[in-house]
Every structure is written in structure tokens, then in C-alpha cells.
Amino acid sequence: MTEPIIEFRNVSKHFGALKVLDEVDLQIHRGEVVVLVGPSGSGKSTLLRCINGLEKITGGDLIVNGMSVLGGNKVMREIRQEAGMVFQQFNLFPQMTALENVAFGPREVRGLSRKDARDLARELLAKVGLADKANHEPMELSGGQQQRVAIARALAIKPRVMLFDEPTSALDPELKQEVLNVMRALAAEGMTMVVVTHEMGFAKQVGTRLIFMEHGKIAVDGTPRDVIDNPPNDRMKDFLQHV
Amino acid sequence: MEVNWLIILDFIPQLLKGAQVTVHITVVGLLGGVVVGAIAGLMRAYGNAVINAIAFTYIEVIRGTPIVVQVMFLYFALPVLASIRIDPMTTAILAIIINAGAYIAEIVRGAVLSISKGLTEAGLAIGLPRWKVIRYIVGPLAFRRLIPPLGNQFIVSLKDTSLFIVIGVGELTRTGQEIMAANFRAVEIWTAVAVMYLIMTGLLSLMLRMVEKRMRIL
Ligand SMILES: Nc1ncnc2c1ncn2[C@@H]1O[C@H](COP(=O)(O)OP(=O)(O)OP(=O)(O)O)[C@@H](O)[C@H]1O
Ligand SMILES: [Mg+2]
After folding, report:
1. Are A204 and A228 in contact (CB under 8 A)?
2. C-alpha to C-alpha distance for B135 and B124, rounded to whole angstroms
3. Nearest CA in chain A to B117
């Protein structure tokens, strides 16, 4: 097997005295779509945020595309260019149009010319079905549209991995699908993805792997269909009944 | 003595000179105050524990003492302590820089912290260095929220210049006092002085409102 693109080596994360990740070992390979589930506070967001350094690990080591998150600021910025992130609250830059939101990264991070950055942004907005919204400001877009712009913004830096932290949790049910469809298309293109979500339908249909977290540990790791249809332990069974 | 408004005309040139000094202290002092305030405010918002503590101490000392005491300290105590002697005008400008700087620091910190942390994270997550996140994302948003409270502070500082009368700076209030001492025309002179302050603060408000409109407060 090839080298994993993300490798947790005995990773711990503490907030003060609170241990949020407890000696996690995990390897994620290219092309995997890993769905991360678990009760509130089990450490899903933290695990995701350690990958792109929004949280600093306090024990072990974490390798992303061959680079350690402990490698300092410059390495961290390179890691972030390999791992795009999509947030629950979209977090679009409110002073910029949809197009500018997407073009900003390529221009300021990848050093593309203004024109090339805008061309790329237009292409990506078209890809998420928002070609006609390029000149709208975030406030003028629905939640689902904002989240699709956010996905385009993350894709614009040409990451090898996409991290999603509950990308549809803030959306009305009828808007969730448009975002999930974009994610489905991404997975179909072979994008490596790590997705924290409560959408079990999506997990079964798109996920290649499902991880159930509990108290900062990986409690279950298997194929989505297997572990959703036959939860290997009672706590997961219980959890699945409540989502 | 009967009130005679026409007498004001005789003193207008003198009062204008005083007002000029007031404007000079205010403008130079606030330019410095904005720089100091921006630095101290950013130290508070982004600094580690030590940097934060330095800025915090500065802000609390200044906000916790009257500006007159600060002026007295600069003018009378500093020469004793550090053998630094500064003239009244420099003292006045320095006092405004230091005093306004502390209040502006709190304004800057508040504005920066009012911008959702999620935006900073979104900026960092696409690989931007932190300074670019501050410069291009948080900064412009915070700046819009800064304008109204900053305008307030500008007006407060402009009026604070009147207390430099205590160290003999020839600004507007001092000028009024001098004229009054010569002719005892209290009603006319203090009315004229008040109107001149009103004109200056009014113009300042107007300018700030124009900036605000152009920035379209988010
Ligand atoms: N910045 C922080 N400071 C202190 N504690 C934190 C911080 N961030 C998270 N925590 C704590 O870490 C634990 C795990 O949080 P995390 O956000 O990773 O959980 P989660 O599994 O994503 O939960 P949810 O499903 O509610 O999003 C929680 O107990 C949380 O309160
Ligand atoms: Mg979470």
C-alpha cells in the first residue's frame, strides 16, 4: 500500500487538563472518504482541526502529505494548502463577493495573477453550480449557496484532501442536498475527504470508511454499510438511534 | 458691565490663534494616539501572555488616572525622575498621544475581537499567513466598526486639550482666560470660546460621518 496522506501517530490533544484526543492512531489514504461520527464532545472537530493546525497537538505526531504539523509556521502553511477545510458556519469573507472569496486564496497563497485567479474562481463557482452568483455578496446568498461558495474557496488552493466539519448542520433540510450533491461529485472525482456529519445516508452512499469516536478515541473503524447496519457495540447502536 | 457682543470681533484673531494651537495639538496627538492605540490594541488581541500584559498595564494605568495627573506627571515629575525636560507644547502632544492611545487601544481590541473567530480560521485554513489574515480580512472589517467609537474619542481628546491650561500652553481655553483677565468680558469671551469648540467638534463629527458613509458600516 502507498504511503498514507494523513497519519496520526499516537496523537493526543489537551485543553488544559481536559484530554480531548487520547493517543489516536489513524492512517488515511488517497481516495478514501472517511466519515467521522460520534457523540457531541467526543473530539471529532478537534481531530479534524489538528490536521490543518487550527488546533495544536499536545502529544504524538501527525503527518500530512509527508509533512509534520510540528514543523513550524511555514510547514503548517504548506499543510494547509494540501488540506482545505469547510466549516459548519461557512465563514465566507463578508466584504468580498462570491468570486472574490474564491479568488483570494489562489492570488494571495498560490501567487496566481489577478486574471488567472478570477478565471479559476469562475470555473470553480460553475462547478458548484453558482456561476450566476459570482458577483453576489455572501449576505445575498442562501445558506446552501454560501456553503457551496465555501467549498469552491477551499478547492481553489488545489488541496489534496478536503476536511468537512458538519458542513450541512447549519442548513435547512431542503438546502442540505445541494451541498451534499457537490460533496458527492467531489468524492466521485477521487478527492480524499474527511467528513464530520450526521448524514447517515451520505455516509452509507459516499463514505468508504466510517469512524465512530468516543471520549477522544476511535471506538469503531469500518465500512459504513457494515457498521451502520450492524453496530459492533451498544454505544454506537445507541448513538445511531439518536441521529 | 453690559453685555456687548460686538466686542468679540476685536478678539477673534487672538482666539483663532488659540484655536490653531488646539487643532495642532489635537491632530498631531491623535495621529500618534492612533498609532500607539493600534499597536497596543493588536498586542492585546493577538499577543502572547507577556505582550498582552504589557499592553494591559499601559491601558489600565492611563484609564485609571485623570488626564490632568498624567499631564502633571509628564511635565513636573518626569524631569525629576529621568532628567527629561520637555516644553509645554511637546508635553501636551505627548499627553494626548499617551492618553488617547490607551482608549484607542481598547477600541481597536474590541473591534478586532468583535470579528468572528471563524473568519480568521477560514483565512488561516486556506494557507494565508496570519498577517495577511489581519491585513486583508479582519482589519478591513474591524476598521468599519472602529469608526464610530474612534470618532467619539477624537472629540473627547480635542476637548481634553483645554486642560493644558494648567501647564500654560496657549491653546484656545488659555487664550480665552488671558483675554478675560484683561477685560473681564466673561460672557462674551466664554461664549465665543464655546462656539469655537463647537465649530471644531462639529467639523470633526461631520468628517467622521462622511468617512462612515463611504465605508458602509457592516
Ligand atoms: N478551544 C477549546 N478550549 C477548551 N475546550 C475545548 C476547546 N475546543 C473544544 N473543547 C472541548 O473539547 C471537547 C471536544 O470538542 P470537539 O469540538 O472536538 O467535539 P465534537 O465531537 O466536535 O462535538 P460536536 O458534535 O458538539 O461538534 C469538548 O469537551 C469541548 O468542550
Ligand atoms: Mg464539532
Report:
1. yes
2. 12
3. A91
Q: In what order do the strands lie in the sheet with A67-68?
A: A18-28, A6-15, A59-64, A67-68
Cα distance between residue B101 and residue B37, in whole Å: 4
- Cα separation of B161 and B142, whole Å? 28
Q: For residue range B159-194, what is the model confidence (pLDDT) as tens digits?
A: 999 999 999 999 999 999 999 999 888 999 999 999
Q: Is A70 on the interface with B (CB under 8 A)?
A: no
Mark yes or no for CB contact A89/B121 under 8 Å.
Answer: no
Q: Would you state the pLDDT for residue A105?
A: 96
Nearest CA among A154, A51, A165 for reference residue A93: A154
The backbone torsions φ and ψ at residue A138, rounded to the nearest 5 degrees and listed phi first, read -50, -40
> A22-45, pLDDT tens digit by residue?
999 999 999 999 999 999 999 999
Q: What's the alpha-carbon Rg for chain A, to the nearest Å?
A: 18
Taking the complete model, does pTM exceed 0.90, yes or no? no
**A163 contacts A83 by C-beta, under 8 angstroms:** yes
Contact yes or no for A201/A190 (Cβ under 8 A):
no
Q: Hey, CA dihedral for B61, B62, B65, B69, is it positive or negative?
A: positive
Q: Is A170 on the interface with B (CB under 8 A)?
A: no
